[in-house]
Design brief:
This protein is an alpha/beta fold. The protein has one domain: Alpha-Beta Complex (Spore Coat Polysaccharide Biosynthesis Protein SpsA, Chain A), CATH 3.90.550. It is 39% helix and 15% strand. Strands 3-2-1-4-6-5-7 form a seven-stranded mixed sheet, sandwiched between helices. Helix 1 runs parallel beside helix 2. It is globular, with a radius of gyration of 17 Å. The relative contact order is 0.16.
Length: 240
């Protein structure tokens, strides 16, 4: 690739080798044809995910950022964003639940200056969520309700989004857990925000990493964001 990429996709991974093997042609078609790059941040996966990505990187488009330990999704995404070669950054999961074909629709409004943040939503007309079933559906709806006072978007729990990296200069991010979109929406206040419906698919391989620890982290994260919204606004008012 000559010159910087037109956009960067950050893909945090842990034990995602099998799903990446299946997803790789779709990722290349969605990203490589538009001059983008895929920054894979791997947390020392024991299943050989990093070795696969290193092999893919030899053919271009893919970039491997390998970490020595499992340090968590939030820090992986932030490290990937910092490593990205473009100011236009998208974030998605590597398990196949997020369709790569939607990436051009997410990044185009950012590149054209029509939005600072574009969110892929499971809760707009035309969206589907076959990959969200049973307990996961109940948990998602409950978590969404808890976050509703913080942002007007229809799917604050979405992990599939794109944004202009320059908005991060507006605040210091301090995410706890895995909801990076919510962190950026609340602390950086991007404007305008666009939403795009999509079909949330069942994962291609492996098992969901959602568990009690992730839920506790999410509740702590919400507490921090509510405190930021309340006390941050008060501090701003006293310094005027």
């Amino acid at each position: 690739m000559s010159g910087p990429p037109s956009f960067s996709v950050v893909l945090p991974t842990y034990n995602e080798r099998r799903s990446l093997e299946i997803l790789e042609p779709r990722l290349r078609a969605a990203v490589g044809g538009f001059g983008g790059e895929i920054v894979v941040v791997d947390d020392n996966s024991p299943d050989g995910t990093a070795a696969l990505v290193a092999e893919l990187a030899r053919r271009g488009t893919f970039v491997l950022l390998e970490r020595a330990a499992r340090l968590g999704l939030a820090s992986a995404v932030l490290e990937g964003i910092g490593h990205a070669g473009s100011e236009v950054v998208a974030v998605m999961d590597a398990d196949g639940s997020h369709p790569p074909e939607l990436l051009p629709a997410l990044v185009s409004p950012i590149r054209d200056g029509r939005a600072e943040f574009v969110l892929a939503s499971r809760h707009l007309p035309g969206a589907r969520s076959e990959g969200l079933t049973g307990v996961r559906r109940v948990i998602s709806r409950g978590a969404q309700a808890l976050a509703r006072p913080l942002t007007p978007v229809s799917d604050p729990m979405s992990g599939f989004f794109a944004f202009d990296r320059r908005i991060l200069s507006r605040a210091t991010l301090a995410p706890t857990g895995y909801k990076i979109a919510l962190e950026v929406l609340v602390r950086c206040r991007p404007r305008p925000v666009l939403e795009v419906p999509y079909a949330f698919a069942p994962r291609l391989a492996g098992e969901s990493k959602l568990g009690g620890d992730q839920l506790r982290q999410y509740l702590r994260h919400l507490g921090r964001l509510y405190a930021f919204r309340l006390f941050g606004a008060r501090r701003a008012a006293t310094t005027r």
